[in-house]
Amino acid sequence: MLAHSALGLAFPTLPVILTTSASTGPNGPLPQEILDMYPTAPVIARQGEVNAWDSPEFRAAVKATGKKQIILAGIVTDVCTAFLARSLRAEGYSVWANQEASGTVTKEIRDLANDQMMRAGVNVVSLFSIVCDLMRDWRSSPGAKEILPWLDTYMPVYGMLARGHRAAVENGTLIPGEADLPL
């Protein structure tokens, strides 16, 4: 959830809209760590609408960005994420749902929700694929210089891979078999 929320820090041109269905309800308020990331982002305090698209304020905020591609996640895959994703698709948006930034109670419910979204034309993808799709090229900006530290923070497995590569380059050693790999 925090890694998904931090996408706007890695890609500062992304518009960020924060929302919650009822901050005093069962899902509670947005985590302070997320609010602290975006002190000037619009925070749409919905009045209980489960599907964010049913909120006129949220809909207006999305339309005000002028963007037609939306990256999203929600607390519950089969409700928060799926309802909004399918509504956005019905309105003609290209939607990218981060499968790692929401969850549900069983694998079967998750799979059903992801299948329903995909049948509606939603791109159900991983956080890493979103990052790489936004970056497009390690040489760009943001590119390796900006994204590797972000990955080290939010995807430590990839950070360790990059650290291992750096160490091999710095000490100039290859283990048996590495020299035989194609470049």
TrEMBL record:
Keywords: Signal
Domain called Isochorismatase-like: residue spans: 35-126
Endpoints of the signal sequence: 1-22
Gene3D superfamilies: Isochorismatase-like
SUPFAM superfamilies on file: Isochorismatase-like hydrolases (SSF52499)
InterPro entries (UniProt xref): Hydrolase_YcaC-like, Isochorismatase-like_dom, Isochorismatase-like_sf
PANTHER family: HYDROLASE YCAC-RELATED
Family label: Belongs to the isochorismatase family.
Protein name: Isochorismatase-like domain-containing protein
